[in-house]
Records
---
Amino acid sequence: MAMAPGSRCCLLLLLLLLLGVLGAPALGDPGPLEDVVIDRYYIPKICLREAQMGDFIRYHYNGTFKDGKKFDSSYDRGATVAGVVGVGRLITGMDRGLQGMCVNERRHLIVPPHLGYGSIGVAGLIPPDATLYFDVVMLDIWNKNDKLQITTLSKPQRCNRTVENSDFVRYHYNGTLLDGTPFDSSYSKGSTYDTYVGTGWLIKGMDQGLLGMCAGEKRSIIIPPFLAYGEKGYGTVIPPQASLVFSVLLVDFHNPKDGVFLEHLEVPETCKRRAVTGDFVRYHYNGTLMDGTLFDSSYSRNQTYNTYIGKGYIIPGMDQGLQGVCVGEHRRVVIPPHLAYGENGAGDKIPGSAVLIFDVHIIDFHNPADPVEIETVFRPEGCNVTSRHRDFVRYHYNCSLLDGTRLFSSHDYEKPQEVTLGANKVIEGLNSGLLDMCAGERRVLIVPPHLGHGESGARGVPGSAVLRFEVELISMEEGVPEGYLFIWHGEPPANLYEQMDLNKDGEIPAEEFSTFIKTQVAEGKGRLMPSSDPEKVIADMFQNQDRNQDGKITPEELKLKSDEDQEKIHEEL
């Protein structure tokens, strides 16, 4: 028989009242607990794993009764609790309540008596039939089947080599427990951790975790306790059975058997000569550590580094690394520490045991025994007369460094350059390069510094620089012997003074002297030292003969250069 809705409500109310009279529990009192009550009041955003049956865990806890009275605390003992979960080594309520927890998760657990210490309790500590309240934080989880967990955080685009056993590594690290508690850091010490890999100097997990890394790579390495410090822990900072997390930056590495590694970044298409031991090299460089830290640069000083190679003036690795370079070459030289500054490093820029990388640009090199290198670009046909020592020549030139840097050019001026060959008016190398040239001939001259401007250089010319000249001989005039301003083509007149004294007044002023000399040249009887200013040459001749400087030459003063040489007097005519 169906009942009206209002009748059902009245019947339900009567049943509830009846149960209350008979002693059934009220709605606000659920009665004895059948299972552990779990309140996950803090769950971390990232949970890489949850505690499972058979896992080894470490945790802290406070244990209280319902009234808040504390009966136990791992914090008070100053040590975490470690053990295996789910295998009956803990009270059943705790075994159940800890399963599924993440590292850093916090839980409130209410453990009923039959899942705690039951009707017996713990004498003097936990009364019989006590409900227990635990506040738990999970700190570590691992399993005997765990392996090393490696996560690559960043990796350089170029990686020519990776860490192998027996390599020596330099790395920075932050070390934390699995819950994030820091225990050590190389950064706080201001220096890298330096050691060999795979030789037992590190904990097993780190030995394994560094293998395969590139210089500049960052890794997170999670190491289970049995590959770390195990049951004993380490001092006061690493508890027993603690998993370790290392954030590692590999700064550099090398092997004691390593030699110099060369990378040819740019080699000129034409390379006529390569540097060898004993050559003097000028080069620019940037010096960096393997992580890219710049420790030195010649560019910052705006000056090349100049040195002999193969003679021990520079670190052994650079001595080796510069062998065989071409002018203009860009080369990378990677030098292990045993060929650089070793375990001690250098100053505050190069740490001990650091691998060094030099990016070098070869500006030029030469050997102290080098002559002038002459390349004839053009030589006119029918060339029978060539330039000789003491000839007066006119020429155009362009001067540059071997890297193409322009220094000087005669084309910047209205007239060609003029010089008497052998008169020490130009550098020795250019003087040599202008000999035996025909008018109209063009040459390229490579002049080493000992035949150029030497170690000191000159205005606009760096010290020890090899110079490149492009020269064209425009014209030449036959010269006179050294020390002479004028020479006779034949024998000089026997009565030289009388002929030179044109007005026969017994003295020769400057005007008479000049007129006489010009007449001899015009008639082909003699020639002046070639010069762009013949008048000055004649004036110098007159001054040499006017020995008392009274403006005229007397018979006693006039002497030929040949006569003076015989008398060992070094005055000129």
---
Amino acid sequence: MAMAGPVKSIAPYLKTNRLHAWLLVFLLCSVSYLLGSWRKAAVTIAASKPCVSSSLDFRPRRAQDGGASSSENVRTYPPCDVKHSEHTPCEDPKRSHRFDRRRLIFRERHCPERNETLKCRVPAPPGYRNPFRWPTSRDMAWYANVPHKELTVEKAVQNWIQFEGDRFRFPGGGTMFPNGADAYIDDIGKLIDLRNGSIRTAIDTGCGVASWGAYLLSRGILAMSFAPRDTHEAQVQFALERGVPAQIGVLASKRLPYPSRAFDMAHCSRCLIPWDLFDGIYLIEVDRVLRPGGYWILSGPPINWKNHWSGWQRTKEDLSAEQTRIENVAKSLCWKKLVEKDDIAIWQKPINHLHCKVNLCPSQDPDKAWYTSMETCLTPLPKVKDGQEISGGELANWPERLNTIPPRISKGTLPGITAEIFQRETALWERRVSYYKTVNNQLGLPGRYRNLLDMNAYLGGFAATLVQDPVWVLNVVPVEAKVNTLGAIYERGLIGTYHSWCKAMSTYPRAYDLIHADSLFSLYQDRCELDDILLEMDRVLRPEGSFILRDDVDMLVKVKRIIDTMNYDSQIVDHEDGPLVREKLLFAVKSYWTASAPSDDPHTS
């Protein structure tokens, strides 16, 4: 009985203590569960500190097709038939013949319907090899990569291209410069200054194999060359194989996919464009993309017809009349003819339209250039206060132009983008690209990459950071972007194009060595299919080329699941600011694989 009192007195305490204990256990379990969930999520994404190394091998290695295993519930994409090795979906030669042949409309973009698109991976041709490294590639390309000898016969006397054994050589000639593009550019340089940095961006209409653009690069001038996919087989493909900027394109009925006031210089060397016809509409389009004070250079018919009319197999009267019509169109644009010497004529666009009394277009956006019809009225320049002011603002000479605040920004014509934002973006991309190079150490090595594509370029910060490297970058501003920034990119002395990634690019397969995309997949979420974008990226990326993709982690996990079925070695790594940032980076390398040679094809009888 003596024990009864103490037992009774301790019971309430034990009950209270037991309650506290259960509460403590509950709290500890909750904290442990939450900590474990967070740790598990973090581990599946990346390491617990910023990843500055990678297990990926970015070096060219010609690994054989390893047949990467597919994840459960992820569709696989087999190789396409070898007949599609040069597949250009929106410039398909067979489809093009369904369309109007007047004004070469059938050569414009005509993309397949959704049920016509290929859901397979476009193969490299048998025997494909990594291109020669720049600058060797300017003068040489492997035959197996572009197996077309037509131009070596058709343009034999013009020194465009020569076939030697297992490779092509590019002597640098052209129809109007058989002695070489270098000497031809020197002739132009005697007429206008190509060395002082005032001319940085150029456009070559009907470019052939882009020798003019190739030899301008040594003078610090970046040319966008274009030509249609036509009977001159693989012109643009040769240009890209050489490491020279080029796109498939044509002057027909739609505006070129560039903003107004983009280029310092435009060029046509016997490009076969009828400048004098259709009310001068093609020269009017050149005027739209030419900056105030920019130059238009014409060589070939009808220039210097008095010496060439017989060789051109045309009458003197016909050529004289054509030149008169071209001169009249140029005058109607308020252009000034600077000089005509031997085979070269040069006109200059006025710096403003203050005293230009012509048929100006109404208020249509001059920068709108995606499936936008050309017009026969003159694109008006921004208004000025006096005749000495340059419309739209004066551009600094290159290289100062690169980091000078673009006039479109300083004048407040890009909604929401200020000078402070531009400067912040410039510093941001310096840091980002520096981080990229710690993950992919090949990015900083000369020659590993040459042709680069930025799929969502914004202000061109990625490209601007790489201007000292032996690479060039095509900056794409998606037509779905909130702000049209492509004009500002050109004002920095960089080049680019408009595009919608719901459709195929106007380029050949294997055009690019490295593809960069910032927040692209989030932009296109619910707009088009993710696998269609990735298959297009795969089409235009060379074997052993690389991706650098940055986006929300959930989106990159989806992307990784798909490309891991497409023979890519990929890895998601942390943002440069650490593991707590939701945005991550996906680095990937495309495996080397080609279509089977006919003798090795088991289906060949």
---
Amino acid sequence: MYSPFRKANKGETGGHGRSKSMWKIFIYRSSSSAKFDKNDPPKELICPIYGCLMFDPVVVSSGQTFERTSVQVCKDLGFKPQLPNGLTPDFTNVIPNLALRTTILSWCEKSGAEKPQQPDYYAVEAIVRASTAENLPSSSSSSISREDSRIRVSERELLKGVAENPPVLLSHAATELNPRNNHHFYSPSSSEESVIANNSPLLPFKTRPSCYSSSSSQSTSSEIISDEVPSSASTSSEDDYYVAQFKKLDVYDQEQAVISLRKSTRTDEEARVSLCTPRLLSALKPLIVSRYAGVQTNAVAALVNLSLADANKVKIIRAGITPLLIDILKGGFEESQEHAAGAIFSLALEDDNKTAIGVLGALQPLLHALRSGTERTRHDSALALYHLTLVQSNRLKLVKLGAANTLLGMLKTRDMAGRVVLVICNLAVCQEGKAALLDANAVNVMVGILRNWNELDESTQENCVAALYSLSQGSLRFKGMAKETNAAEVLQMVVEQGSERASEKAKRMLISMRRRMKDEDDDEEEIDWEGVLEGRVSQTRY
């Protein structure tokens, strides 16, 4: 066996004669007769902070080795523990201690001990706080800072999370709002602002998923069974009750617990925030992927309710639930898929979540659900795609998925046109999206939609004109395609019958098109073709 550490004695000196009091890495081979007791691991293999075998040991700047999660907890709390030798570790930089990790795994194999698992962040935090409470900041301030911090995960880690989690499904909630009063529509996180966000006056869309209802009268069949929340769930530590119920083996108990959670969080904003703890989210995850329809559907619906609170949105993403929702969209119970689309839509309202959701692979399942899901699934998938494509990286991903043809085809579906055109507007503001849409004959499709002017609601009219306007900006191809489809006639109709905004955009496009045609006609008249043919004038001049 290899043991990587021993502690330098006070009398030991470094290479320059200076006393060094830190952990030094060295290797020794134990005798063949050494015994391995799985209940008594060598102290060198145990994290001094967490007190357990290290899953991912790292060497910090001052030379000691700790579990990586322990280092992260201390850094987040601004806390530096004092070691038994009186030293204070420096957590500025960390380097993976691969030799020690190999030693730990070897010891586990020889002793028959279970290999260490990655410790839960909040469990480590609780241990640190419990052991040194007087030296730590208040839990409330640290919790707030964690909730407000951005997601610190790489694309590789996020994509790995998608592959490791099984499929699941969900449903949504909705209350119509005037988007001019809704910051979620007007605060895109990307530097390139959406055409819709800047130019459309009325968005007849929701900031809550379609499956959500504050009234039990609109509940679906699987939604609510029990009339009262158990009294044990109404204490100050409600999550304890739910966590205990979720972990029971009886499927009936699990179903009643998620139904109770769904009812408790239906309209109570405070309950949504207080119940959305890391422990509860962790216990809820297995129920989201349950093979029992009642458990799965109500678990996802309860998650939708929790996601409606702004304070919970980043927390839910960080809990690793997004991959489960994505898998539900790919293959779950129909009602669960409705809830899954609604949950992703709700989570996508938070700017800090948009990039992470796209990286995790939600765009393709949402695009598929847009075509083949139920009405509620399609509506929420469209709105989720709209909010996600406020970020440039997600626009590029959607273009690479060949979404242009799909979205233009969906415009012909009368009940979906208003939502789909929002996504098209977002794609049209970037060069890659504009090129893909023009290749898919978007001008002809959009002009065809506008010919049925009186059949469109005002917001769809304006957004179709806005999409055309974005396509016309800086594009020579647009002029030729517009001429082929006789777009000038339709734009003139928009000028006469459209709203002030739609009319203004139509005028600008008409002026631009006529100026281009006039310039071409002037060039045609100025050329002395006879002189060119006789060789008296150089054609290259023209």
---
Amino acid sequence: MPARGGSGSGSGRVWGMEPRLFELFGSGAGGGLKNKNGTKGKKTSRGRSRGGRSSNNPPYLPPEAEEGNIEYKLKLVNPSQYRFEHLVTQMKWRLQEGRGEAVYQIGVEDNGLLVGLSEEEMKASLKTLRRMAEKVGADITILREREVDYDGDLPRKITEVLVRKVPDNQQFLDLRVAVLGNVDSGKSTLLGVLTQGELDNGRGRARLNLFRHLHEIQSGRTSSISFEILGFNSKGEVVNYSDSRTAEEICESASKMITFIDLAGHHKYLKTTIFGLTSYCPDFAMLVVSANTGIAGTTREHLGLAMALKVPFFIVVSKVDLCSRATVERTLRQLERVLKQPGCNKLPLLVNSDDDAVTAAQQFAQSPSITPIFALSSVSGDNLDLLKVFLNILPPLTNSEEQEELMQQLTEFQVDEIYTVPEVGTVVGGTLYSGICKEGEKLVVGPTDQGDFLELKVCSIQRNRSACRVLRAGQAATLALGSFDRSLLRKGMVMVSPEMNPTICSVFEAEIVLLFHATTFRKGFQVTVHVGNVRQTAIVEELHGKDKLRTGEKAVVRFRFIKHPEYLKLGAKLLFREGVTKGIGHVTNLRGIGTDASDA
């Protein structure tokens, strides 16, 4: 999984983003924009007719793809031994493509035609599928069944089945979800309910275990980044702290892990929130909106950040137990209006049933324009199960081939957190962007203030608070460095293979779009630059071909870091801010240490 701050595929295409994205930033910008589509926006709640049959069933699904983790099977009734072995090999391939997960559509032809099976044929097909899953060490879960109208009067069904491989050697599927939203929208409380397995008492009891500092407990406001885990076993059942004492037990019994990155909602902690989004490479973002206040405070800004960094997001409307139905519907209409405005161009999909949750998870991963919306309560538990169904089925964004390519590259670990642990020594936390990292491996860390790299040895590795011998690309972990001097480390450093020749620079150029600025953006302006895990103040040395920039304009700009050189990559996504000023772009040119403006 390429880090969002790194030079992943297409990360250099800043102009590919919506041209009106800047309308999400600034004071009240774009709030009252009308939907250009007018009456074309379709209602998203899915009506269901009597008999449990969907009222708008399509006669076709898209044709089966050769790649990916979705397999169509018309029927699996009493296959021969040779055919059975072939089917098992096929299942292994689909599981590999989905990194341990595959979805089987039974009763569907390869061209996507919904034929359906009789009850007897469906029972026999599911029995064969269960045998196939046992052969590869996986479990199956029926996601949904639906009746289809095909030739004949007999009722015919198609069944959608999730196949998930039982984890071996700690290789569970790990998805990272950043949690965004305005202060007091119920982010930490929702995470507390999901991970602890107990509903909130309405006064914030569920969130107490998530806070890291005394002042957070006293104020009830998150100011730092914390991580919470929610597991699903191979049968799709929730594994959390309610029936597992420790994180190690959750890791042992889970085959899929959702790591929530709890970010701060208050505006004064915005730099921490941006760092969490750029540095921790989330796969998805969950935007929490309070039903009683609607889109308020930093909600619009957080939505804009997720859009700018191209992090797919879904929305949770919380606290529905505090409001009347009319208030909840008003908030949903407000969200729909913002999502459909030209800066977003999203299609809201309100999730009201398990069937909707399955559809939302599959379409959300396939189409970047779909935005699922959940309306729930952490106190009464209303619709909480729909969110769990969605998270259980949510597939990874990268397939096994992309993962393998990243693992073949040289080791690169981004340092996001630094600790000193008694009897262990210096510990760093972060994400392995590429390669493989093993216990006992020798790496170099830097750049220092002088631009040097220092040798060190990885003594041990922990992932989700449990020991791990091998770390693979895209995984987050903490590495113990023994007696290595902590004062030599800082956030924003990288640990890389000694063979790598890292690109260190103090001056760089970037192609940028100014998302919001009150007046004009000029040479000499100082901004805080975020590139991956790098966060440092830089001065604008030159705007190529322009004297000044206004909101929505673009240019190539030369920046100089004011403190120390940093490790950057060409094409890396860049986000800068200063007060209400915000911009986004990508790195186009790197210049070495000590480069004068006259040389540049």
